[in-house]
Each structure stands twice: as structure tokens, then as C-alpha cells.
Amino acid sequence: SYSSLQQIIGPDIGPNADSWFFRTIYVPLRNLKLSLSVTLVRKGENIVDASGRLIKNVGGDFLQPHRSVDPIARTFLDGMLVKTRKFDFLATFEIRNQIWLDGWYEYESIRNTLLNSKNTNSTFGGRVRMEF
Q1: How high is the pLDDT of residue 63?
Q2: How far apart (Å, rounded) are the C-alpha atoms in residues 60 and 76?
Q3: Closest residue by Cα to residue 42 from 76, 5, 72
Q4: How far apart are CA 32 and CA 30, in angstroms?
Q5: Do 17 and 41 touch, CB atoms closer than 8 A?
Q6: 63 and 3 in contact (C-beta within 8 Å)?
Q7: pLDDT of 8
């Protein structure tokens, strides 16, 4: 496996996956910045039964090595397809020189196409930030 201390080396999306990232930034005022980013990830995960026994190894787990019963040729995004969509909105307002007020909202949707399940999560927050 391409790992160190049970952590993947490289992008954290792992094998048998792709990721797209888009961001736009709008500055309507000198001291106000608005940012919207979208992250789309598709991942083909290995298929396991209810007890956790590996049924089909499609290369979706970096800790699972190739076995002699696994085919050499693989289809990209084969197995259990999991699609993740993440939207981030950030507003930054500079109150005074080097003092900012930040506010953000994040929405994440994870859909498993094989199990036909969907999980969503949303968070928001804010902070006052000073830099010298």
C-alpha cells in the first residue's frame, strides 16, 4: 500500500476516485470579500458483505492489496459508487486595518448509489481574526 502509519500518501480522496474543485471570489467593496466553492468527488469503493468480508476488490481501499483472485484489469469507478458534493460560502469583512470578521456556511451531501442512501451535513460559523 502507498501509505505511512496507516495514512495514505498523496491526495486524501484515495484510489479509484476523482475530484473536481471550483471557486469564485467576488469583491463588491474594498473591505468585503465573498467566496463560493464547490467540490465534487466520485469514489468507487470495494464491495463488502454485512460482516465486513471483502466480496469485490476494485482498488477502492489503499490498505487492501491485490489478491490472486482479483482481476488485473480494473474499470475506473467500479464497485460501490459514492458521490460527494460540498458547497462552501465564505464572507470576510475587514472591520479595521488587519482585523476581519469572517462568516461561513458549509453543506455536504454524500450519496451511495449502490445502497441508494444519502447523508447530508451542514455547518456554519463565524470568527473575529487579527493578523500582525
Answers
A1: 84
A2: 10
A3: 76
A4: 6
A5: yes
A6: yes
A7: 85
Q: Helix/strand/coil (H, E, C) string of the chain?
A: CCEECCEECCCCCCCCEEEEEEEEEEEEECCEEEEEEEEEEEEEECEECCCCCEEECCCCCCCCCCCCCCCCCCCCCCCEEEEEEEEEEEEEEEEECCEEEEEEEEEEEEEECCCCEEEEEEEEEEEEEECC
- Say if CB 43 and CB 23 are below 8 A apart: no
pLDDT at 67: 86
Q: Tell me the CB-side half-sphere exposure of residue 41, using CA atoms within 13 A.
A: 20
Q: Considering the entire predicted model, what is its pTM?
A: 0.84
pLDDT at 9: 86
Q: Is 10 exposed, middle or buried (0-12, 13-18, 19+ CB in 10 A)?
A: exposed
What one-letter code names the amino acid at 13?
I
Phi, psi values for residue 51, rounded to 5°:
-85, -5
Structure confidence by residue, pLDDT tens digits, 71-117: 888 899 999 999 999 999 999 999 999 999 999 999 999 999 888 89
